[in-house]
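Quick illustration, no need to memorize.
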Amino acid sequence: MAFYDPKYDLFLSATQSFCHRCNDKRHLIDAHVISRENAVYLRKFCPKCGESMVKISDDLDYFRLCDSYLKKPDLPEMALTKVLKGCPFDCGVCPQHQNHPCLALFNITDECNMKCHICYYAAEPGLGNHRSMEEIAQMLKTLLRVESEPDLIQVTGGEPTTHPQIVEILQFLKASPVRHLMLNTNGIRIAEDEDFVRKLKALGGGFEVYLQFDSLQEETLKNIRARDMRGIRLKALAMLEKYNISTTLVSVIKKGLNEKEIPNIIDFSRRYRCVRGVVFQPVQEAGRIEAEGDFRITLSEIRRIVIEDENNPFTDEDMIPLPCDPHKIGVGYAAKKMETTQEEEMYASLMPVTGNIPKEALLEQKGTIAFEQERQFVKEVIETVSLDTALGEGILKEKIKQKLFCCWPSFLSPKEMGYENVYRIVIMEFSDMVNFDTTNIKRECNFMIEPQRAIPFSTYNMGILFSQ
């Protein structure tokens, strides 16, 4: 006789994945997305290894909220590969992909001046392979075929500052049609070479440093980065603060190690006028991973830590799914004003604004940067959140107000003044062999740009053998 069991799986959807047990990257397997006791799992069925379960969220309500935030796709302008075997074996980008490159990564070298225990690219000293200016020019040409007016290019590696032509590369890309340019770095050269920092400052508005910043603790840094980086990070931030170069702190989060530091990292970031926010990235099992036990953490777990932190003003309503890739990226934006504390130190006062933006308005937007052009929309949002009232009369001029939300929905920086009044928290989760599913990967908006291909970041790092 049929009966009801409240602990039994709740079926949500069907998809395809890879088996992370046999690590077979040649064949997809069937998978179900199910819920059990308020958590969400990917239940896989491998002919060789049998059934396996992977937690992809610890919050069913938030998982469902993500579904409700999914907006119509903004497609690449051109496909560079054909559909021969199906997703993800045709990456490059194929006609089935559902997102354009919000973020285009240019890997300019395999060389690094560190050998971290966790590195999605497995970079280390001695690998070399600095890309030539000709290769980088071809990479840009390929990107412009897919996206004629790119929103954001991030120069990465390896450690890009080890490239002998790094300044020339940044100048070349800054002169391209790209709206915003980012440098992904461990901060060593910035800490030690002030002349280099002056050259970064000379790049002008629309440039930002994406600074590795995983912890404030010595042992944690040794666990993740194989060395104590605290001194380097403080010197790098002092340089960036001196020249007021827009900076985002980027923290790789490893469960059982540094997730408890998330509130401290947010608090620390508010002491610098140059810091525009923090990005938290759960460990991705790609490249070099020297870790044991249960070190995986989900986006929803990080989000809960953020909203339960009594010292920052971001609430459940303020940390929302990013409409272009809602299950993989969560964001919260705030208006920011630097103030002097009783201890005569600078500290940012924050007023979250995303919770006051109507969901319907976000889902109806076309393209990545719409707020610059749609003045009426910006005006309505500003009136809704009453920024002047919260931060003081006249702090945000009309042109700055128009730019304040241009970061949405791809965390970009405007080219003019006003970005200093923006602060955001981003949680960005990538796909790997463990949590991969073909439904989500089609929405990925971070792309690795090669001379002839534009490949989603996750599939690039997974080492999948592409069909063409």
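The CA atoms of residues 345 and 372 lie 34 Å apart.
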